[in-house]
Specification:
Length: 214
């Protein structure tokens, strides 16, 4: 087993044994590694050549910790609003000895106000619909950067409901990249221009009043 795979399996073991917070719905290190950690591996090809990356709604650290292990040259921020999860993930990061990770406890809307367009890539896994993810992530990414989210079978429905309004966030049209069959994909947007300062809106509004319906 190569060093990176060994570290990632140890990460799965730590997730399985965590008692301070419920970090994953899957039990057992082998199952977590196969269904959660390995699911994140294909996304590494979309990471930037250098710079800063943020994982929004990181939960137990997926995919951010996987990215940090695979790309020690990047600076990775794990963002989550649940203090108990952040505390547990800080312990996991320390146990793994991964030095390029910062764990931040905050709502994404609040964090974006003080770290606006500071990142080369913002990603999310199991966070919200494609349109809501785009609104939450776009304010964090600098022009020329990229937004990424993991999606499932409803991806085309989620994208079509936004129509051609991605430019309202400074984003280009999304590309859909399937992996492991037709049920799992990653959606990517290029950040073509700065995000209008009206975004982020106040906490929770993205999911209640969609930007494309404004």
């Amino acid at each position: 087993m190569n060093p990176q795979k060994s570290t990632l399996y140890r990460y799965a073991e730590l997730l399985a044994s965590c008692t301070r917070a419920r970090l994953t719905g899957t039990r057992g290190a082998d199952e977590i590694y196969a269904l959660q950690v390995e699911d994140c591996l294909p996304s590494a090809e979309y990471l930037p050549e250098s710079g800063k990356v943020i994982d929004v709604g990181s939960g137990g650290g997926l995919p951010g910790i996987v990215w940090a292990v695979l790309r020690p040259d990047l600076s990775i921020t794990l963002l989550d609003s649940v203090a108990k999860k952040c505390e547990a993930v800080r312990g996991i990061v320390a146990e793994l000895g991964v030095s390029n990770v910062e764990v931040v406890c905050s709502r994404s809307e609040e964090f974006a106000r003080t770290h606006r367009e500071k990142f080369d890539l913002a990603g999310a896994r199991a966070l919200a619909s494609a349109g809501v993810c785009a609104e939450l992530l776009a304010p964090l990414v600098k022009a020329g950067g990229r937004v990424l989210t993991f999606k499932g079978e409803r991806v085309h429905e989620e994208i079509s409901e936004v129509m051609d309004k991605w430019g309202m966030l400074g984003l280009g049209r999304p590309s859909v990249n399937f992996y492991g069959g037709e049920s799992k994909c990653m959606v990517l947007w290029e950040k073509e221009k700065p995000c209008p300062k009206v975004y982020p809106r106040r906490e929770g509004l993205a999911g209640m009043r969609h930007f494309w319906g404004e």
